[in-house]
Amino acid sequence: MRSVRIGVDTGGTFTDVVAVDEQTGEILTTKTPSTPANPADGFLAGIEKLGRLDVGSIVHGTTVATNRLLEDRIGGLGFITTEGFEYVLEIARQSVPDSYGNSYFWVKPPRIVPVHLVKTVGGRLDHLGNEVRPFSDEQAAEVARWFRAKGITAIGVCFLHSYANPEHERRMREILWREHPEAVISLSSDVLREYREYERSVTTLVDAAVKPAMRSYIATLSNRLGMPFSVMKSNGGVLSAREVVNQPISTVLSGPAAGALGAALIASTAGHQSVITLDGGGTSTDVAVVIDGEPSITTEGSVGRYPCKIPMIDIITVGAGGGSVAWISPEGTLKVGPRSAGADPGPLCYGKGGTEVTVTDAHVFLGRIPPHLLGGEIPLDVDAARTGIKALADKLGLTPERTATGILEISAFNQSNAIRQLTVKRGLDVRDFPLVTFGGSGPLLACRLIDILGLPSVVVPRDPGNVSAFGLLTVDVKNDYVRTYVTRDLSLGKAVEIFHDLEHQAGEALDREGFDDPVYQRSADLRYYGQAYEVRVPAPAGEIDDDWHAEVISRFHDAHEKLYGYAYRDDPRHGVEWVNLRVSGIGPITRPVVRRLEKAGEGATSVRPVHFEQTRDTPIHQRAALGPGATVQGPAVIEEYGSTIPIHPGFTAKIDEYGNVEISRD
């Protein structure tokens, strides 16, 4: 029996499974409908579809934490903070969302914790962590008993300047354990030991909010699976399930992060070191940028309306998936998304009780996807899609073909706007980057995105619907640690002390994961004195001496100039200020090899009516039958088990040596 490593990515519509044979490197793939009511059912059904295998390890990408935040399913959450700072959530930040031209018309959204569930405790630290007023055990006990009486079990604790000294927070936790044993507690000094009270408070509360659901899900899955497994994290690493329940916030972009990493490996193998990745699913589309083989990392991310200041792959998510609903606004204009029909009831063509037209229905009506999914496992009701499109067209006063094309055009512009946010807004020229598109619905709009954005080409990997699950098998075990230390004169001794402490924490965590020889990556956040925000730069490994100090400063000047167009490298009037020191502890794994495609497989070419500019009989190619060097001229459609690629007139698709389909304008 073959020994395999398995990656399972649970999406909003489908659960994708990839297995890699540890001896031969052979890759097996499959998909199964997701089960939103209990994601564990879809997880186990996907593994069962692979058949009898000797499973060595399993890595899981989950949306449990993400969906809880996106759907605002947060209740029964309490907040404990320093006396006098009970309105930190209300004050928040002054920035107004882009869609509001004037702050007078913007009403701040409800806080993650309502004001009546915020309690304060006496005691005060200064910014260096020195105690100004002693911690009040009496008030702490009173607060703990109050939450117990109210039945509030998920509690976030964030005291002023606890990043410099966590003792008051740890004392609060001890008292909560004593007075309120059922409480699930998150401390800001554990979640994010970094300054800025508002972001640290919200990040801690997000961790507390998703912790009960994640613990329940992981426990259920562990019991049913009967073996240990790992979970994908937002920072591009994995962690064992037993460890991730203590830091569930680290999983909030679990699946999308895996997709970006899998696509980065596939693209770099094919010779594309810098690309844009687009993961199109049934519910949403996730976009990331890969530069020199590595996805960009940020700590300024958010999930829904909640800022999460943890290291995560820089991903923009928009509600533009195959299940995105087409609707008419009060002004009478056609809109698409962000609401999705999901997996249940799904699009009209699923025949499961859906009542609204979706992007998938538009593709079915135009003939761009076959009348079935997953190689025939899921038959589609073409008549239901046609009826829904015609009814919507009548309301708009358009032809059905025009309406369906309009739905796809709006969806393509929604995706292109997400790509612009990650490129143009960050000073990158989108025309310099090929697009790697994957996911079940990702390749469907490839040609339109080339036209809209001026992309040089679009690359569609083999088994595009399973790239995120494949990505789960390409990532190392990884933990991130940070310490705020604001100074214009960082002594070498202090730098050694902080980095040693962070590396010790990282080493202990990796030791629990079974890694004897971990790798440490250092970085630092710096800014010019007087600036409000900092720039992160990698810090060299090895001895921390004067040369090390000068190298980090030099890297900061270079990074600042690249980001903002100027630097004060030789101007002594603008001193450099150190803000945060960081360490990533990495346990390396052996990555699967992307193998070359030796020859074409089997599959006959057929014909069916497809609408592009007009409806006409169009060649339908089976992707398995296209070997290296094969060329497909549009109009045409390339089909495979988990996805479909429409090739519009005026475009050409070529198969490279790894089996990727590369699409470009003629």
From TrEMBL:
InterPro entries: ACX-like_C, ATPase_NBD, Hydant_A_N, Hydantoinase_A, Oxoprolinase-like
Uppermost EC category: hydrolase
One Gene Ontology CC term in the entry: cytosol
Superkingdom to which the source organism belongs: Bacteria
Pfam family, one: Hydantoinase_A
Key words of the record: Hydrolase
Domain Hydantoinase/oxoprolinase N-terminal: 5-177
EC number: 3.5.2.14
Gene Ontology biological process terms from the UniProt entry: glutathione metabolic process
Residue stretches making up the Hydantoinase A/oxoprolinase domain: 200-480
GO molecular function annotation: 5-oxoprolinase (ATP-hydrolyzing) activity; N-methylhydantoinase (ATP-hydrolyzing) activity
Start and end residues of each Acetophenone carboxylase-like C-terminal domain: 497-658
Descriptive protein name: N-methylhydantoinase A
Organism encoding this protein: Nonomuraea thailandensis
